[in-house]
Amino acid sequence: MNPKISFRGVSCTFQLNGEVFQALDNFSLDVADGEFITVVGPSGCGKSTMMNVAAGLLEPTAGEVLVEGRAVHGPSPERGVIFQQYALFPWLTVRENVAFGLDIAKVPEPERRRIVDRCIDLVGLTRFADALPKMLSGGMKQRCAIARAYAVNPAILLMDEPFGALDALTRVTMQDQLLATWARDTRTVVFITHDVEEAVYLANRVIVMAARPGRLHQVIPVDLPYPRNEEMRLSARFMEIRNQVWNAVYHQTPAIAAQAPAA
Ligand SMILES: Nc1ncnc2c1ncn2[C@@H]1O[C@H](COP(=O)(O)OP(=O)(O)OP(=O)(O)O)[C@@H](O)[C@H]1O
Questions:
Q1: Residues near ligand 1 (Cβ within 6 A)
Q2: Can you tell me which atom of ligand 1 is nearest the CA of 160?
Q3: pTM, whole model, 2 decimals?
Q4: Is the pLDDT confidence value at 261 over 80?
Q5: Quick one: fold of 1-73+154-162+181-263?
Q6: Residue ranges of the domains in the chain?
């Protein structure tokens, strides 16, 4: 079967203080339709750069990203993007923020209301539907951003550390909600995280990147069945894969190993 997303030899360079800096070097990866992949790696290894190319927000210096065989040259509603910074419109309520993409797509009113209510409910913000973003906590803002991305029902979700700013409990709940949504309504997901356990818990495959230059380091399949649950986090197999990902991330080089947090 043809991949949903295909990174083909993607390289990105930036000019930094008059010098050429290689943020991503010859990155190639196929992502299958409906696959959930997570991306981990040391800071500065090009994770966001890779995602920005897939989102169509950045043109690569070499190579290309194909979606269903078509080259990406700009953003598209088929690719929903969620960043750690919530990027909500401060003057719109939660409901209006979530409805934003549907307004642009001219989805008629009864249908729009149904979708907005469902997405707000999915992220647990029903009581705050008429609140402005300034009245929400960080976690609630992020849930609103996620509801907004879900509302336009993109075939591909590109998520750049979406749960990074959430407290531990909200984060675990959001992981389960994301997997439940994905199981009901399968999309292709590319999810960047710094959290190795989160990477293993969510993914079909964990992509480990390396830095200087940013590149693909290892692809680690996660052979745990779905639906995943809290008990699995304590299973021997989960710990085994988690340790494999941990070693791939933090023992790439002695310099990175020296900075590694306690395992
Ligand atoms: N627009 C830019 N101009 C110059 N350098 C850039 C630009 N964007 C990214 N870089 C550099 O490219 C490298 C990769 O950045 P990127 O944000 O993709 O890494 P990352 O793996 O997502 O990092 P982190 O985990 O810290 O978020 C970094 O060294 C960064 O400083």
A1: 14, 16, 21, 23, 41, 43-49, 214
A2: 22
A3: 0.89
A4: no
A5: Rossmann fold (3.40.50)
A6: 1-73+154-162+181-263, 79-151
